[in-house]
Design brief:
This protein is mainly alpha-helical and 199 residues long. The chain folds into 2 domains: 74 residues, no CATH class; 74 residues. The protein is 68% helix and 5% strand. The chain has 8 helices and 3 strands. The protein is elongated and about 135 Å long. The two termini are 64 Å apart.
Length: 199
Amino acid sequence: MASAFVLGGKFRDKLTELLEKKDSSLPERLRDELEATLGKPEPTVLSFRAARTLQKYLQDEGHPFHLHELLDGGSLHLHEVVTPPRNPVLVARLERIKVKLANEEYSRITRNVNTQEIRRSGTLADFGREMRSVKAVVATVFNFLVTVVAAFACSYLGSQYLFTDTGPRVIAAVIAASVVGLAELYVLVRTMEGEMGEP
């Protein structure tokens, strides 16, 4: 945090001029501080406290120059922030925590990877298991198609007692086959959900 000004050339000149006047009623303590400030090598630094005291003096004495005009060429003096050295015990502990977190993240990512399954890929047991699943899918699709076609055929033949034209018989058969197909799909989806373990 800033607590002092770095004085510009204009301020130094005005302060020198003020201190050279012997008849000025400048307080002794302020005069000593200003002389000590001007005696230091560049950059000249003036504390806020001394600047406020000088401003009050200038206002009381009615001098023709103002403090903010003098500070125009200067800047704030910011102390250099010295960062303390890091504690080696703390640094070592942080490194251990980073390694532990990285290992946990790796374990979380690879928890569903089974290396024995990877090594066993391509065996006859895997081929047989895949063939059984393909066989089950083909049987299910064939069963679905046979059911829908049978429902269409039964509805078409059975509707001859209700309708004499072919158009209404086909529409009735399509509606019946659609209803049976939707019911079959519903049962199929529920069965697959049960096999996958979903409620």
